[in-house]
Design goal:
A hairpin with a 4-residue loop joins strand 11 and strand 12. The chain has an eight-stranded mixed β-sheet with strand order 4-1-5-6-12-11-10-8, sandwiched between helices. It has a four-stranded antiparallel β-sheet with strand order 2-3-14-13. The chain contains twelve helices and 14 strands. It has about 350 residues and is of the alpha/beta class. One 2-acetamido-2-deoxy-beta-D-glucopyranose binds next to loops.
Length: about 350
């Protein structure tokens, strides 16, 4: 044998011995607790009795067909873009549609079937839609006052309307140049607090949010941080979690949360990155951008699991969005890809 092969053999034996020595220390978890080893369930995480693992989210429908009449001109038609439904589903919850043009009595009954509500983006800022949104928002606050943990998520227009309602001032927003604008975020100290949207993000993603463009802003109105902080009603209710810059480098509040209520206002739209594909939409599509969508869904649904509401399963099933079929409106290459239409 050459010196080389002797060395190789020696090395191989050393490896074998090392591997054997390692072997003696390798135990399956079940082998460490012999008394438990018969029960295979010992490896499943115990569920938390304080959490609800079948959460349902109410989404308020928006006037129109969501496609400027390409899909439906029926009077009183309303829609929910399917991207919001997919967003909620991806977090592990189901959706019940709340129709903006149904009676307060019906809305109240449906709100007893859900564990949180979501307000979408859109264009309607007054009339029956605003009234319905205000009614649902007030009911959500009352549920929280009554001891439930009932989260509210307002995205883009939905968030801006919550700011207007809390401020009780129609002209509290200012114009910004932020239509279809991929953005980074400046996170404020409060973004780390328990119960904040960003607290649910993995650390590496949080770092990237401030340097990379992982979110999409798509709005013309917003509030400056200064105005939010100097408006007594707004500063009593909200704290700022994140700000961003528009195209003219004007700073606006991008995320705010209720100080005493699980209410989140978010001007950027997490559902777009993963679920809307209109060709002019500049939504970020990188893996990290998709993780932003997923982390946001995890946040919202984890808040809904804290709700103490335990509705009757059959009543929930009878009202789920699965009773409706989404319509593909994306063939024009613009607007929402799929919408649920309610005629
Ligand atoms: C709705 O009305 C517009 C304008 O008249 C028309 O172009 C469009 O085709 C109509 N949409 C449907 C679904 O009928
Ligand atoms: C928005 O910003 C772009 C790019 O800076 C600029 O060309 C455009 O005029 C601005 N729009 C408005 C309405 O100010």
């Amino acid at each position: 044998m050459s010196n080389d092969s002797i060395f190789s053999l020696f090395f191989f034996i050393t490896l074998l011995v090392a591997a054997n020595a390692e072997d003696e220390h390798i135990f399956l978890p079940s082998q460490l607790h012999e008394e438990d080893s018969v029960s295979s369930s010992s490896s499943c995480t115990a569920t938390d009795p304080n959490l609800y693992y079948r959460p349902v989210i109410g989404i308020l429908s928006h006037p129109g067909d969501g496609a400027s009449g390409r899909l439906s001109n029926v009077t009183g038609v309303s829609n929910i873009p399917a991207s919001y439904v997919k967003f909620v589903e991806s977090g592990g919850a189901r959706v019940i549609p709340l129709f903006y043009n149904e009676s307060p009595q019906k809305l109240t009954k449906k709100l007893d079937l859900v564990n949180g509500v979501l307000f979408t983006g859109g264009w309607a800022t007054s009339g029956p839609y605003l009234e319905a949104l205000e009614f649902v928002f007030q009911t959500a606050l009352e549920k929280n006052d009554g001891g439930d943990h009932f989260p509210v998520l307002g995205l883009n227009l939905g968030g801006n309307l919550l700011i207007k309602i809390v401020a009780d001032q129609a002209d509290v927003l200012e114009t910004f140049n932020a239509s279809s604008l991929p953005s980074s975020l400046q996170l404020w100290k409060s973004a780390n607090d328990e119960g904040s949207l960003y607290q649910r993000f993995p650390l590496d993603l949080l770092t990237q949010l401030s340097t990379d463009c992982l979110v999409l802003h798509n709005h013309k109105y917003a509030i400056t941080p200064r105005k939010l902080q100097y408006n007594r009603k707004l500063s009593n209710f909200f704290e700022i979690l994140a700000t961003s810059n528009d195209r003219d480098d004007k700073i606006f509040v991008s995320t705010a949360r209720g100080k005493n209520y699980p209410v989140t206002v978010n001007l950027w739209q997490p559902e777009k990155n993963a679920f809307e594909w209109g060709t002019s939409l500049k939504a970020p599509r990188t893996e990290n951008a998709i993780r932003v969508t997923q982390s946001s869904a995890n946040f919202f649904v984890s808040e809904a699991r804290k709700s103490s509401n335990r509705p009757y399963a059959q009543e929930v099933r009878d009202n789920l969005i699965y009773n409706y079929q989404p319509t593909y409106g994306g063939t024009a290459g613009k607007g929402y890809d799929q919408v649920y239409l309610f005629e």
